[in-house]
Amino acid sequence: MTNLDWLYARQRFGIHPGLGRVQDLLHALGDPQRAFRTVLVGGTNGKGSTASTLAAMLGASGERAALFTSPHLTRFAERFVVSGQEVPLETVSAALNRIRPQAEALGATFFEIVVALACRLFAEVGAEVAVMEVGLGGRLDATNALDPVLSVVTGVALDHTEILGGTLELIAAEKAGILRPGGPAVTGIVPELLPILERTGADVWALGREARLEVVSRGWQGADITLESPAGNVTFQTPLLGAHGARNAGLAGLAAQRLGLDSAAIRAGAAGVRWPGRLEKLAWHGREVLLDGAHNPDGAQALGAALRELGVGQVPVIFGAAGDKDLAGVVAALEPFASKVILTRARLSPRAADPQMLARLFSVPTQIADTPAEALNSLPPGLSVVCGSLYLVGEVRPLLTGEVGEARERWQ
Q1: Which part of the chain is the Mur ligase C-terminal domain (predicted)?
Q2: What pTM did the predictor assign?
Q3: Fewest 10 Å CB contacts: which of 218, 253, 363, 371?
Q4: Which domain holds residue 308?
Q5: pLDDT (tens digit, 9 = 90+) per residue, 325-373?
Q6: Does the residue 409 lie in any domain?
Q7: How far apart are CA 216 and CA 258, in angstroms?
Q8: Could you tell me which of 152, 149, 129 has the C-alpha nearest to residue 61?
Q9: Are 66 and 127 in contact (CB under 8 A)?
């Protein structure tokens, strides 16, 4: 069994929130997380694009910046980026081999091992700062074993309610766990939930309060953003699409300001960021396919708003999702822009919902495709949307780009 096969097999042991095992594992590895500064980026949606943009800004400032994100789309090594470059899989596997004995001895979970692996990799390559995307929640997430110099909470929506709680207030309290008393934090959270973050004693700057964003859409080219904050004013461009993409870029800019970056680094980093699979338009056999990981109602609503902003009417939609999501809420948000829906499932995700069951939730015309490839081949000319599970997007994207995807079962 290869190291990656061993790691993937640990997905079946599930998620066990708590910091004890990952703290013990990091300590057994010599506490590699102390070799660099850490920024934690949590929130329900928008974590990845915010973290990716901030890492690009840090890189543009001259820092040797690392980026950890999860889950990956197509390749496991996507989770580990240093100076804008994915760490080679051979390097990742070799580092995993070195930490495997300690991980096995401590009974660490899949995600705990992946976080420790990121820390080991980033320390070994001499990263000066690491932007770490939080996995689930915050308070008990494995990334929270690190000590951040800055904490970011993008926003809060209902998702993973069986673990985090069934109200926005309960979920916000879990997300607030990545903040530190007296430590700097930035957030895009709605005003009524701000007191929950501030109860941590952190020094919180919020969009709409300490900071103000002015966004001018440039359509398919992204947006022009003006950010005004106590740290100064800066104007920059982002290629991220939609109002939520611009807001995530603006929040990354505010985080960069709190880290002391100048306007030139913010502009250069924001302009150069790429975030695959999230409002990403790709050409394929004379068609245009827009990929987006809209897997919960809040994300689906943001996708719909972005399509309206881009002047897109009703389009064919390929959709598949995990069975444990608020599927009725997602469907309600998707239907206004769907001319028809092609239902399929990620082949490698045991959590994927049965397309026949999904069909009963839709009032617009639906059809069933046994595989993502079959769904793509049934698309008419013009623009179509593929959305839902990131695992589905991760299987569709290599079909569009010609990359080689993974063949391992995906749970996390």
Answers
A1: 277-377
A2: 0.95
A3: 363
A4: 278-401
A5: 788 899 999 999 999 999 999 999 888 889 999 999 999 999 999 999 9
A6: no
A7: 24
A8: 129
A9: yes
